[in-house]
Amino acid sequence: MSATNNSGKYFTPPIDPATPLPDIGQERIGSARFSSRDVMQREWTHLWRRVWNIGPRLEEIPEPGNFVTHELGKESFLFTRDGAGEVHGFYNVCQHRGNVLVPGRYCGKERFLQCPFHAWSYNLDGSIKGVPGADDFPQFKDGLPRDELGLEPIEIDVWGGFIWFRLEGGGPALLESLGDLPRQLAPYRIEDMRLFEYKTFLWDSNWKVACDAFNESYHFRGLHPQMLKWADEKARIELLGEHSRMINKYGTTSSPYTGGSEVYPELKEWLQYSGMDPDSYTGPPEDTWQAKVEFARQVQGQPGVTVPYEDMTDEQLTDVYHYFIFPGFAMNVFPEGINGFRYRPHASDPQKMYYDLIMLVHYPEGAALPCERKFFDHKVRYNEVADQPLSYIVTDVLQQDADNVSLNQRGLNSDGFRGMLLGDQELRLRHFHNTLDRYLAAD
Ligand code: FES
Ligand SMILES: [Fe+2]
Questions:
Q1: For ligand 2, a single-atom ion, which residues have Cβ within 5 Å?
Q2: Sign of torsion, CA 146 150 155 161?
Q3: pLDDT digits 0-9 by tens, 107-142
Q4: Could you report the predicted ipTM of this complex, rounded to two decimals?
Q5: Nearest C-alpha to atom 3 of ligand 1 is from which residue?
Q6: Under a CB-based contact definition with an 8 Å cutoff, are residues 243 and 428 in contact?
Q7: What is the CA(157)–ligand 1 centre distance, in A?
Q8: Full set of structural domains in the chain with CATH
């Protein structure tokens, strides 16, 4: 297996499994953090307001006049593209009496935004446009004080095709805070991917329960036993500043399925999902990934193929690179796209959260599909709500994860639970909680 790039343009370093993992502690991690309102409040002031948060996709506001709303904790935000094409971020609140300015819809296109309460209106650049009955305001007798009446801006930046935002300045710039991630992720060209599925679910757990659930593959054996037939359960793990990653090989097997002669139906489905003829491979099941490498090398660079296979190492063609961007975003990165998981705190209940499933793909040229964001506040079956044809090997795993978070939350609330005992395969969880603790302990 080649560790170098085909094109040589980029280099995403592999993780050497022989590199010893850092010792960052062994003690149990207490579970009060998953239900405490005090912790929730401190997370708001000391974490969410201070970090770069991942917001909407740029493609959600492609044209002048487009706007999109985004919620985090108690706040609603508004991202707009003004008449000159410039992107802005604001608190989604009218400066008259504090009504939410744009309620109840994710996105749209308007010449201006009008508050539903008393019809004050704002331009897409956040400036005040009009105040009905302005003559009745003695404050405005010399004209509208435009500097004082505009929407409250927030700091924004763009990376990977996402709009990022921060509520308190003073920390590192976005690129600095992402550390080595932009370099490692450059060959995937996430900025050129487009939305494929975009769904938000209200879950019955603290947001950190979901973070922890997705940041290790130790749970494959218990929660996703079918994955042992088509993936390596053992992850290679690396901590990257506040962030981290793990790499699992797909198109292979874990015990007890290694050493057999059958290419399992799940492996065939994986081949098919990767765009291949599932019957084209007849070798040992654990080496199925080799067929994907051969396939990708054959099709790379052909007319209409927009997946940047040529910029990937062989390992990147078959292995899933799972990146966690502190504090609330994780993604499984494939050459063809990403499955992104954004974890957002609830406005008031520490035992609820919003989970955004954000799937992006490199569509073939001219074949991008419209993707509408949808919200579900009740339990659903993924294979019934998916807008695009998703393989059962994907939806089954997502379903198992979704169904388990409330069980985990319930047990974490128990007086009989002694705290989380984490092994090496769960190192990223400890790193996450250590990092969070540092934020919460700061002034
Ligand atoms: S609160 Fe918006 S116009 Fe009155
Ligand atoms: Fe899972």
A1: 401
A2: negative
A3: 999 999 999 999 999 999 999 999 999 999 999 999
A4: 0.98
A5: 118
A6: no
A7: 29
A8: 32-38+180-441 (3.90.380.10), 53-157 (2.102.10.10)
